[in-house]
Amino acid sequence: MLTAELRLALPAWLDAEIDTEHRYADDAAKVALAIRLARRNIAERSGGPFGAAVFDGEGRVVAAGVNRVLPETCSVAHAEMMAFIAAQTRLRRHRLNGEGGRYVLATSAQPCCQCYGASVWAGIDELLIGARAEDVMELSEFDEGPLPADWIGELEKRGIAVRRDILREDAREVFRRYAQAGGARY
Ligand SMILES: [Zn+2]
Questions:
Q1: Which protein residues have a CB closer than 5 Å to ligand 1 (ion)?
Q2: What residues contact 121, with CB distance under 8 A and at least 6 apart?
Q3: How far apart are CA 143 and CA 131, in angstroms?
Q4: Contact, 31 vs 130, CB < 8 A?
Q5: Rounded CA gap, 116 and 109, in Å?
Q6: In terms of pTM, does the model score above 0.70?
Q7: Average pLDDT of each block of 10 consecutive residues along the chain (186 residues)?
Q8: 78 alpha carbon – ligand 1 mean position (Å)
Q9: What is the CATH number of domain 13-175?
């Protein structure tokens, strides 16, 4: 029998980790949350070393995600994808900014080629990035995949502002910790 229903789950600890009334005022506060989620995902052994969160224009968290590829047996279950799906489900629209408002995705590491593509259509206005793809590939075994040469320009053409190297050292530290914990075992 074919599978008729698709389901992805975030870890149980995630909801308690986030105060949805708190305003994450600046870029660093938003990326700091994404990094904290990545760290906790390693500590909890609930997925790979990546975290992401979607914020509204007031700086409040709409949804958050962590990497769930191994626990969910799903290659698309990256932190950014989980955050987008959770935000779209919560707001009941496939384009987050489709009815106005500004939305921001903060991610602990530069989106891979899949999450880059998803970012084009998710309906965000800003993308905030901690570690660079080269950091991820230097410090871990993850392949971030091919991106357009001018990947930032392609996003900016579509109205998405990109800011990177936010708390880059803290974000790099996540991958060192992951390697020390034994790498891709969970
Ligand atoms: Zn990805």
A1: 78, 112, 114-115
A2: 95
A3: 14
A4: yes
A5: 11
A6: yes
A7: 95 95 97 98 96 98 98 97 98 98 98 98 98 94 94 98 98 94 66
A8: 5
A9: 3.40.140.10
How far is it, in rounded angstroms, from Cα 151 to Cα 165? 15
- CA 90 to chain CA centroid, Å, is 16
Sequence letter at residue 122: A
Calculate how far, in angstroms, residue 57's C-alpha sits from the geometric centre of ligand 1.
Answer: 24
CB distance 95 to 123 below 8 Å: yes
Residue type, 36: R
Joined together, the tokens standing for residue 180 give 């020390």
**Contacts for 105 with CB less than 8 Å, ≥ 6 apart:** 52, 53, 54, 55, 80, 83, 84, 119, 122, 124, 126, 127, 128
